[in-house]
């Protein structure tokens, strides 16, 4: 039995008139009559009592109407489920980032995204900006978070203005802990731990001015966590962005902002004009929605 014919039958039963039903179905009245006559022949029973002005259902017609409505409803549910399955978004999105405050923004974006698309896995890759940038060019990282300055050629991105502050880390019993801010003079005779990225070092050098070459740089570190470990062991004062400082135990490491203040902006970026998966395109939509 063709579901299309069942729909014809239900339309006639609703309109109680072949002509009106044919108009609803955009077919001719003789065609509709032939189709339903063939249905009655197939079932071996009359479905309609054909009056001069209207049509009513026989007992068999009433039974068929009830079952036909169930079949049509089941078909619609099945199609909805299949469509939903086709639109189910799965996959993995790889995000490369350093240890800085804008990861909080990333978490907000991910929270909204995961609520909509729970089957997508997000892989976090923590590394320096240079490593993340290289992996993006190789197609191994989809989204990159970069502390500025960064080369954005070939990238689409949003900028999170002044999302981080430069700080100095120290042990909680250090003499500098009592200071609200750390100045250039405070650092002249201290062993420092500086970020590995040259352009980030340049930001600090510009802030420090003509005496930058007089500084005692004891360590270079590409990530803040290991620099913090060195500081806890009394090996130096890490100069870096504030980043995830609030997750450090203050009985191990304390941070104080530099003065005059230095702030840093962050970009959340992805490669331009690249064919992405549906999961990735939806993630980009969430990033741009956050910007708006």
TrEMBL record:
<feature type="domain" description="HTH lysR-type">
    <location>
        <begin position="1"/>
        <end position="58"/>
    </location>
</feature>
<dbReference type="GO" id="GO:0003700">
    <property type="term" value="F:DNA-binding transcription factor activity"/>
</dbReference>
<protein>
    <submittedName>
        <fullName>DNA-binding transcriptional LysR family regulator</fullName>
    </submittedName>
</protein>
<dbReference type="InterPro" id="IPR036390">
    <property type="entry name" value="WH_DNA-bd_sf"/>
</dbReference>
<keyword id="KW-0805">Transcription regulation</keyword>
<dbReference type="Pfam" id="PF00126">
    <property type="entry name" value="HTH_1"/>
</dbReference>
<keyword id="KW-0804">Transcription</keyword>
<dbReference type="GO" id="GO:0003677">
    <property type="term" value="F:DNA binding"/>
</dbReference>
<comment type="similarity">
    <text>Belongs to the LysR transcriptional regulatory family.</text>
</comment>
<dbReference type="InterPro" id="IPR036388">
    <property type="entry name" value="WH-like_DNA-bd_sf"/>
</dbReference>
<dbReference type="InterPro" id="IPR005119">
    <property type="entry name" value="LysR_subst-bd"/>
</dbReference>
<dbReference type="GO" id="GO:0005829">
    <property type="term" value="C:cytosol"/>
</dbReference>
<dbReference type="InterPro" id="IPR050950">
    <property type="entry name" value="HTH-type_LysR_regulators"/>
</dbReference>
<dbReference type="InterPro" id="IPR000847">
    <property type="entry name" value="LysR_HTH_N"/>
</dbReference>
<dbReference type="Pfam" id="PF03466">
    <property type="entry name" value="LysR_substrate"/>
</dbReference>
<keyword id="KW-0238">DNA-binding</keyword>
